[in-house]
Design goal:
Two copies of one chain form a homodimer.
Chain A (H helix, E strand, L loop, with lengths): L6 H4 L5 H6 L20 H9 L2 H6 L1 H15 L4 E2 L6 H5 L3 E4 L5 E4 L5 H5 L6 H4 L1 H13 L6 E6 L1 H10 L7 H9 L1 H25 L3 E6 L7 H18 L7 E5 L3 H7 L6 E3 L6 H8 L4 E6 L8 H13 L7 E5 L9 H20 L2
Parallel strand pairs in A: 1-4, 4-5, 5-6, 6-7, 7-8, 8-9
Antiparallel strand pairs in A: 2-3
Helix pairs in contact in A: 5-9, 9-12, 10-12, 12-13, 13-14, 14-15, 16-17
């Protein structure tokens, strides 16, 4: 199993991805893609014909194999643990299923204090020890210059799934709890924060070199409620792993206003969604944190001309300066042609190398 | 048919709604709700048992009846024409259906230059003359202190529907056209801008006193593309009706960044979606335009305590000052209890009257 390594940072002390987060000098902008291990890859689809999604997550050898697949093809600058944010609700007692042509399903849903009564974060590490196993297995094969990113859903985002039980358009049940029983909502968020902290500490112990908290549903909160229900719980997670000396990235989908709310959170890096202007994001939050993002995942449907133009526009925001990790602004879509990904990856390397040389 | 009129502006020369948009002194904050004529009202559901949605839109007496229903109950400060933004694609030749438990469906979809070739905005006024009929019928019954708002979808938002043919999660087909054939996209947007201008001019001639452009899908554009594909076409519409001396409201769903992009558009008022902080919106765009919004529609599921708290938070942003039209930050949801709407309306009147008195 050979991992692609670029000569330019072969002999550096510290991986490109981590240097960019710390705003140390870099020769080019590091790149990885959210959902880089996934359905757009033929080798992933082939493996998934034999094993269902949760079996892959729970079998360290399989999780390691799919984690490494995109690195073999494209030599990304970071690997991300193959798993799902909903393993926490499952470990807390909800049944987790992935139905065909449907998103995830959690049963039974949490709607009342009674539904919460039997749930406890204690012992969650044992229930999720297959994740530690996957991390160790991945690291056995991974080039040390390619850091492995561990991750979790944010307490708010996990709460949304646990209450709705599935994807939602209006998030009716979450909103009903938010606006009729804020105390119960906070009880659930406290439980989840405890669970997430235990979970990410276990990941760190198993060997991840960075953490990302996915706050996919941060944007369904009106801004005046975002601090109280999402940001402050994520901040507790950052505080809890502060002594571990590894960078935490917060990724709240919901535009520039959320970056403003998160810039003082202590996060080493903030994820920028594709709907946000990266230049504005830099002026709002770039002094406090590195930024990750933020090309439209659908751009990879595009012509070479348009892909090159938008990559250039994105990379120009930081130019020759450090503090930027290039990524899509959301997960790669499952029907993106692999050739377009290859072209995109080449463009990011080529353009960012040029921009850093010209400095 | 009696329309509720508040004494306080009975003798004013100009309706409260229009005064607030012009930032003239007001005694309280005017209020209406997007989708105020709709399924949450028992009298609307009763009428809809006899007539399907498009029949109501296309029959002036029925459209007038449902437009007036919420005014009889709640005495809102503006009426909005009962119609649908997709009557334009229908007039351009796409078949429009509303399937049960499904959003609208447009057939055949627009994906190529050939699909566009047979479409023309010419004569659209004749095809949509039932809208002029509805406007005249509504005005026959409407108190002159309650202005009737006409509306249209934005060219971009109509293009999204025409290309996808239905609601979408990833807007795959729109994005493919955007990133592979920008010229074709602009052709479609030019056609739609022509159609919208003809349509809103017809509405003005028929008697609407204000216009709102719904840019529901503005937020699916990355910000660097928003001017080119949405904002500049909306601006053409504003320019085209400038001589009519009636206020145009632009409502792009997509957060504070879009308000920044729209603040110099010449719009008299900007709609603020519920995900945006109204205070921030005011500091970004409030010097140029009045603001409309922006309570979370799901707030109306809430307890009286929480509804009152959030209404107060919203109204405090403008305090005793003019330039604000209170509204939800998106359409009212169909299963909101009517009693909660009544409580919400009372709270807005009571709190805003208090805030204006204390000045």
């Amino acid at each position: 199993m050979r991992i692609w390594i670029e000569e330019v940072y072969m002999n550096s002390a510290s991986p490109l991805f981590l240097r960019a987060i710390r705003k140390e000098a870099v020769d080019r902008t590091p790149l990885w893609m959210m959902r880089q291990a996934g359905r757009y890859l033929p080798e992933y689809r082939e493996l998934r014909q034999k094993y269902d999604f949760l079996t892959v997550c729970k079998t360290p050898e399989l999780a390691a194999e799919v984690t490494l697949q995109p690195l073999r093809r494209f030599g990304f600058d970071a690997a991300i643990l193959f798993s799902d944010i909903l393993v926490i609700p499952e470990a807390l007692g909800q049944e987790l299923r992935f139905a065909k042509n449907h998103g995830p399903l959690l049963n039974p849903v949490v709607r009342s204090a009674e539904d919460l009564a039997t749930m406890s974060a204690e012992g969650i590490e044992e229930k999720l020890d297959y994740v530690a196993g996957a991390i160790q297995e991945i690291n056995r094969h991974l080039d040390p210059q390619v850091p492995l990113i561990g991750f979790s859903g944010s307490p708010w985002t996990l709460a949304v799934y646990m209450i709705e039980g599935q994807g939602s358009k209006n998030f009716q049940n979450v909103k009903k709890m938010l606006y009729t029983d804020p105390e119960l909502m906070h009880q659930l968020l406290d439980l989840l924060t405890d669970a997430v902290i235990r979970y990410v500490k276990m990941q760190v112990q198993a060997g991840v070199k960075a953490l990302q908290i996915f706050d996919t549903w941060g944007g369904i909160l009106p801004i005046p409620l975002f601090q109280e229900y999402s940001a402050r719980y994520m901040q507790k997670i950052i505080d809890a792993v502060q002594s571990e000396d590894l960078p935490v990235t917060l990724f709240s989908k919901g535009g520039i206003a959320l970056l403003e709310e998160l810039k003082d959170s202590g996060a080493a890096m903030l994820g920028v969604d594709w709907g946000t202007d990266l230049a504005r994001a830099r002026s709002v939050a770039g002094a406090n944190a590195a930024l990750q993002g933020n090309l439209d995942p659908a751009l990879l449907y595009g012509s070479k001309k348009v892909i090159a133009r938008e990559v250039e526009r994105c990379l120009q925001v930081f130019g020759a300066e450090s503090g930027h990790v290039c990524n899509l602004g959301h997960g790669i879509l499952p029907d993106i042609p692999v050739d377009n990904v290859a072209f995109f990856v080449d463009q990011v390397r080529e353009i960012s190398s040029r921009l850093h040389k010209s400095a």
